[in-house]
Amino acid sequence: MAFELPSLPYAKDALEPHIDAKTMEIHHGKHHAGYTSKLNDAIGGTDMEGKSIEDILANVGSNAAVRNNGGGYYNHCLFWEVMSPNGGGEPTGAMADAINEAYGSFASFKEQFSNAAATRFGSGWAWLCVHSGGKVEVCSSPNQDNPLMSGVGCGGTPILGLDVWEHAYYLNYQNRRPDYINAFFNVVNWEEVARRYEAGK
Question: pTM of the predicted model, to two decimals?
Answer without folding.
Answer: 0.96
